[in-house]
Amino acid sequence: MKIIKLNAIDSTNSFLKDLAKNSTLENFTVVATDNQTNGRGQQETTWQSKPFKNLTFSVFIRFKNLAIQHKKYLNFAISLAVFEVLSDEKLPKLFIKWPNDILSANKKICGILIENTFIGDRIKNTIVGIGLNVNQIDFSNAIKSVTSLKIETNKDYNLDFLLKKIISKIEEKVQLLNSEKFDDLEQGYLKFLFKKNTTTMFKDSNGNLFMGIISGISKDGKLQVTLEDDLIKEFGIKEISFA
Ligand code: BTN
């Protein structure tokens, strides 16, 4: 791993995306900053992080042979890597919320933004952006319910140590991906999936509420929900949210 530390940057994902235009960029190059000024989240949201308190970083990963049809396993690998590092810290009620938020005590502790580049039917490379709330305890400006390692454990964390631990774990899970251990990744992910096999209230894209049970993830990464009439319906990221 090669870590490039920047004093401040708008978005580590955007910066690394520019670096990746150079086709010789080393695999597992990491860009990290203590002061990300315009962090990007999924679905055109923003990612806010108090300077010097948290981890905001991105990892460049090159693939030799990862088919687009296996894209969901990349998401499983990354989510599971972060999850496993956090589970060492004995956080309360730790789960992966589909597709790749990490929750502790029902609040978001980590967000992941995966941006792939394709060639034909293969994923050529990816930029994995991770925002992890670590030592920040004041979230009074947050719109959603969020938490941090420090809030949940009362401990202060060394950011560099945690960063290296997560990157190593990502390397380990990407090895599983490259050796096509897809079932291991899927089983690991499903084991810790938030609200799996639990009757849950959801909201569809029209704002309608409905009850269902998360039963799995489809081949193309959609959330499979069993509805009251035992029918299984599949939802994309824009089509469903937890009510
Ligand atoms: C989300 O939950 O919506 C994903 C948030 C991802 C935030 C990280 S912080 C480091 C990297 N750089 C960005 O601009 N975004 C990701």
TrEMBL record:
Keywords: Ligase. The lineage of its organism: Bacteria, Pseudomonadati, Bacteroidota, Flavobacteriia, Flavobacteriales. This is Biotin--[acetyl-CoA-carboxylase] ligase. Coiled coil: none annotated. Gene3D superfamilies: Bira Bifunctional Protein, Domain 2. PROSITE patterns: BPL_LPL_CATALYTIC (PS51733). GO terms for molecular function: biotin--[biotin carboxyl-carrier protein] ligase activity. Pfam families: BPL_LplA_LipB. Its EC number is 6.3.4.15. NCBIfam families: birA_ligase. Transmembrane segments: none annotated. It comes from the Bacteria. GO terms for cellular component: cytoplasm. Residues 1-178 form the BPL/LPL catalytic domain.
